[in-house]
Amino acid sequence: MNGFSTGEEDSREPTEQICCLIDNGQRCIEIAGNASYSKRIQKTVTQRRLNLALDNSARHIYICDNHKMIIQSARTKRKRKDSEDDSNETDTEATDVDLFQLQVNTLRRYKKHFKVPTRPGMNKAQLADCLMKHFKTIPIKEKEVITLFIYTVKTNANKLDQKNGVNSDTA
After folding, report:
1. CA atoms within 13 A on the CB side of 156
2. 23: which strand partners?
3. Quick one: DSSP state of residue 16?
């Protein structure tokens, strides 16, 4: 496992390891990928009540791509706590915005604009997570937004152009 041969290792190639998980009481027989079953993953499995467990007889902690996708989808399909209706929408259906891709200064401007209360000294990940929770609480009327967007595109009206003194009729 560490690069040195003691002669006691299994005769299989290291790339042919089998998934280390037990799924519904049965050991998975798929070939393991490069994803490992970490403490964080184990916590997600426990919280989402997935019927997965680590096989203690396994000599590694690598899981197959199938279980990796199951765990990832369980992580992203978390129900919204602050939903106003009982439509059973999930976070991934509601928004595809990734605030983690923004710069820290942009996140701070968002925080200041919406007056989001946060504790001082937060790092970028913590700030983005806090602002994402706020972002998901902003109510949106989809029909109005789409209608206004189409109207704006068709009339070439842009508030930014009007603020700068450029009108689409005169340009």
Report:
1. 6
2. 26, 52
3. G
Answer whether 58's CB lies under 8 Å from 20's CB.
yes
Structure tokens at 26: 């049965």
H/E element holding 62? strand 62-64
CA angle 158, 162, 167 (to 5 degrees): 90
- For residue 78, what is the DSSP state? P
- Burial-class residue 64 by CB neighbours within 10 Å (0-12, 13-18, 19+): buried
Per DSSP, what are the bridge partners of residue 18? Answer: 31
Helices 124-137, 104-114: crossing angle, 10 deg rounding: 40
Q: What is the DSSP letter of 100?
A: G
The amino acid occupying position 117 is P
Place of tokens 């790339």: 15
Q: Which parts of 58-103 fold into alpha helices (H)?
A: 65-76, 91-94
pLDDT tens figures, 90-127: 443 445 678 888 899 999 999 999 999 999 888 988 99
